[in-house]
Amino acid sequence: MSFSQKIIHWYSANKRSLPWRNTTDPYKIWLSEIMLQQTRVAQGMPYYERFIEHFPTVHDLANASEEEVLKLWQGLGYYSRARNLHTTAKLISEKYNGHFPDTYKGLLELKGVGDYTASAIASFCFKEAQPVVDGNVFRVLSRYFGIDLPINSTEGIKYFKALALKVMDADQIADYNQGIMEFGALQCAPKNPYCLHCPLNDSCVALQKGKIDILPVKLKKAKVKERYFNYLVVLDKENAIEIRQRRGRGIWQNLFEFPLLETEREYSLEEITNTMDTVLELKEPTEIYQFNEKTIVHKLSHQHLHTKFWIVKSEEKHSNGVSLEELKEYPVPVLIAEFINTFKF
Predict the structure, then answer these.
(1) φ, ψ dihedrals at 262, nearest 5°
(2) Percent of the chain with pLDDT over 90
(3) What SS3 state is found at 248?
(4) EC top class, in one word (predicted)?
(5) Residue 321's beta-bridge partner residues?
(6) What is the pLDDT of residues 124-152, one digit of tens each?
(7) Burial (Cβ within 10 Å: 0-12, 13-18, ≥19) of residue 281
């Protein structure tokens, strides 16, 4: 059997039962593929099911408010995916009357849809012979063919796309594409792959040359930026909480949070007290104290947020304050959500 035939044969015996595999509806395929970018299947599954329940069609998603979409997405991270999802749903609903483009090139025109997602939708829904190349596929191809080009380099991305096109099964493109991704997720895993029982072990270059642990090759990521966040949880005499919406580009765009004082290092209580008027319009507070004894380090892909929550009590009534129950309805970063679940108002 050829490489592609072995992949398809393995897939038929080992594939997981996943809801988006029981449909050729491009809306559901698109939704699942966007959600599973940078996300494990186990984590993404409940989000997919909730989205389908709330927004069974692309028209339903298009007609939702951005806050509704962000709230359902809360905790999944990379929130630009959710905003792009909402923007594209509106375009599909309004311009295309709910019908997705049925070609790879047409799908690439949609916001938030790149080569991988366009290839997935085109092949799964419309049987177009386009190979998918995601992290799992990079790993399988790199190990099997013994390729040490960095998979996140311009040269590497171009090379692996051409190789994927060469080895794919054009006649069974949907099963082949799903198969090689599943193979990378379950069999040729990043760590401790099941090489002993692998159907490709008799011709895998990385296994023969002892390179399983060093392939695929990746260029080093940019240096992680260290940031220092001080959230001022301002409670008035009625225990209403002040919240604000993040604006502009950057992390957590359009999500809600407490007033934020970002500093160049960790600040003490005295320093917070002396500088909080730069972000708050507040008369003399009645009490200020640090909520979390240890600094919380919230790790994102390219930055670490060293975070403290400061409780600031005031006799003034908030003009934009909300109750705890109201606060729970707002889309917030997971860092804020965890605090809300911990703090006893």
Answers:
(1) -95, 130
(2) 83
(3) coil
(4) hydrolase
(5) 242
(6) 999 999 999 999 999 999 999 999 999 99
(7) exposed
Residue 250 contacts residue 330 (beta carbons within 8 Å):
no
Per the structure block, which two tokens stand in for 199? Answer: 């159907």
Give the start-to-end residue ranges of the domains of the chain.
Answer: 3-208, 225-342
Question: Which of these, 311, 310, 345, lies nearest to 325 by C-alpha position?
Answer: 345
User: Scanning the structure block, which residue is given the tokens 């996140």?
Assistant: 152
Closest to 14 measured CA to CA, from 147, 181, 150: 181
Superfamily covering domain 225-342: Nucleoside Triphosphate Pyrophosphohydrolase (3.90.79.10)
Contacting residues for 144 by C-beta, under 8 A, at least 6 apart: 3, 200, 203, 204, 205, 206
Extract the tokens encoding 269: 């209580």
DSSP label at residue 315:
S
Question: Parallel, antiparallel, or unpaired for β 296-299 and 303-313?
Answer: antiparallel
The alpha carbon dihedral of 199, 201, 206, 211 has a sign of positive
30, 117 contact by CB (below 8 A): yes
- In the block, which residue shows the tokens 């502009």? 248
d(CA 177, CA 175): 6
Of 33, 128, 182, 242, which one is the catalytic site residue?
Answer: 33
Q: Is the pLDDT of residue 345 over 70?
A: no
Q: Hey, what CATH topology would domain 3-208 get?
A: Endonuclease III; domain 1 (1.10.340)
Contact of 330 with 258, CB cutoff 8 Å: no
CA gap 90, 98 in Å, rounded: 9
The pTM for the full model equals 0.85
The helix or strand, by DSSP H or E, that contains position 232, with its residue range, turns out to be strand 225-235
Distance CA 118, CA 140 (A): 20
Q: Which residues, other chains included, contact 159 with Cβ-Cβ below 8 Å and sequence gap of 6+?
A: 147, 149
Residue in 333, 336, 174 with CA at minimum distance from that of residue 254: 333
Rounded to 5 degrees, φ, ψ at 288 are -135, 130
Residue 234 near residue 276, CB atoms below 8 Å:
no
